[in-house]
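Annual report, structural modelling task.

Input specification for the pyridoxal-5'-phosphate complex:
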Amino acid sequence: MTQESYAAIMDQRAEIMRASVDIDYEQYTTGRLAFDYERLMADTGYDIATALAVQKTTAVGKTPLVELKNITALARTVSKPGKGARIFVKDEEANPSGSFKDRRASLSVHEASKRGYSGVAAATSGNYGAAVASQAAKAGLRCIIVQEAFDSEGVVQPEIAEKTRACEAYGAEVIRLSVGPELFYMLLRVLKETGYFNASLYTPYSVLGIETLGYEIALQMQEQSGVFPDVVIATHAGGGNLTGTARGLRKAGAVNSQVIAASVDLSGLHMASDHDFNRKSFTTGHTGFSIPFTTWPDRADVPRNAARALRYMDRFVTVTQGEVFYMTQLLAELEGLERGPAGNTSLVAAFVIAQELDEGQIVVVQETEYTGAGKHPLAQLNLARQMGIDVRRGDPRDNKPGQCIIIPEHPSQLAVVNIDMEYVRRSYLHNAIKSLPEGESLSEVDLAFLAEETRISQTHVQEILNELTGKTR
Amino acid sequence: MTELIEKGTWVEIYNVVLPANERAPQVPEDTQRVPLEMRVKGFLLAPAAIGEDAEIETLSGRHLRGRLAEVNPAYTHSFGSPVPELTPIGCEVRALLHEKGRMQ
Ligand SMILES: Cc1ncc(COP(=O)(O)O)c(C=O)c1O
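The model returned the following structure:
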């Protein structure tokens, strides 16, 4: 591998991306900022039926939708009388590599294979790497996964150590890097050298692959209870999970199901900080990803991110690390499901939000993931202690990311914090203005686009923009 | 004399990808101060000693050079000791459910 500087590789970013995802994003541009999102998605040729058919060939999907009767009963012991909706979980662990990420990887790998690429590559430290590696193994393609895995002391985040092992178990080459955003620089170098397909988390293929998850939830719920879910909660980071699920729900006709994003609160910890790296007990589903990606999705490796969560989000809540560990324990001990951390973030939210709803209503947690060595509350809390973080029982409201993790003492202490959607929209629009090239102004098409992106009226968009530009200029 | 590791052995190599002063401009200060390091596993292409330059063939078939860091590297991640703050939770919530007559 020839060594090229950071700047030299980043300069070639556009051509490398063009060759490795084979999508001409330019043709979808309709304004200064606007682009035709639906046409970008549709042009891939993957409607739900096609996606389901591809996934059937690799045993992806068709996972059980399980009612969590004991957790629901526990929520009702602490809710007001008559409250406490039924909680269900989509057991995505049942996918080949143990998470919904198999859906996300399946169409990319299928596409790479169809287009004659000899291999696939992705920059990911999480489940997605294992999913791409697993799908590539079945398709007979080579696979390279680039991970951010250890800090400058050589301490490996245990969940990522498990992902390294899983990727290697599926026969993938794993490039393990120390902390920093240059993982994308390394991905570009690899793509340039190998000519592999970029199985990016953010192409239309990725998001269309997740649509089957929402689609299945809607149909299974209909079949099991005769209704669509009242609420579906997604653990939210980069936004593909929520976007794909919400689109799939709509395609199945579940247009009134409320879609809620839930993230672990990691406020105060910097995502690219070597010091903070192992002071986070979660590697995904946290605010370090979800806030920046919700308020500006086009920070991804591809020119246009197909994961646009703000378009689909009815509500956005955070929970604490300690609450998720507590819930992980409840899921194992009350429901007999020992599952990984990510889905349990939305399960905490479900436990709380169910108490706002009536007993007859239905809340669905849209995923579980596998658990195991490293990828487990014990591994994370033991590391946290080693890093000097105070782990104790108490009131989860006293939580301070990077300093203490508070395990609740009683289920009545579980709560969600609502993120102000108006703040999120303003923040998105602020980023939109910042991304506008010098001297350019927004057209009618752009205003309509921004209204779709933020789910508010054009007039409201204009009002916020006026305020923001009044302030920033 | 350092011992030579046999050709074909499964090993890990180490490299500095970007030295501390050549990192991406947007990285925070603490990260700027340390190099971007890389570790990759593969089969050793020619006998080499630990700490010396070596070439490997990775699982994707690429040939990479670097400092030979480890032979047959172990997966050491685990669970560790039970965490006392988690151990009693199951008993606590089962008791709550029994108290309210909710446990089936
Ligand atoms: C199991 C699991 N759940 C949820 C997420 C979050 O998904 P997204 O990044 O698409 O929001 C991830 C991805 O990192 C994941 O691996």
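DSSP finds 18 helices and 13 strands in chain A.
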